[in-house]
Design a protein that fits this description.
This protein has helices at residues 5-13, 15-53, and strands at residues 65-70, 73-79. The chain is an alpha+beta fold. The chain has one domain (5-79). Helix 1 crosses helix 2 (15-53).
């Protein structure tokens, strides 16, 4: 008896449990691989769209006055101006 015969005997004796374990492991690996591929495709698509805009993106807040707070204390309002 060596180290390899024990798992082989167990797999033969409990073939349904072994088959289920292998199927679940394969499903997990396939889902992780699929999610990785989808996230890469979305990232590349977003990068391509942002590169097509170039430096023409201007980010501005919706309000002209922002309330500044730190640690739960209000420090005052900041007025935003366009330059």
């Amino acid at each position: 008896m060596n180290l390899l015969t024990l798992p082989v005997r167990y797999a033969r004796a409990k073939w349904l449990r072994t088959l289920l374990l292998v199927a679940i492991f394969a499903l997990g690996v396939a889902s992780m691989t699929g999610l990785h591929q989808v996230s890469q495709a979305v990232g590349e698509s977003l990068e391509k769209k942002l590169l097509s805009y170039g430096a023409n993106i201007l980010v501005t807040p919706k309000r002209e006055v922002l309330t500044v707070s730190y640690g739960g204390y209000t420090l005052g309002d900041v007025t935003l101006e366009e330059h």
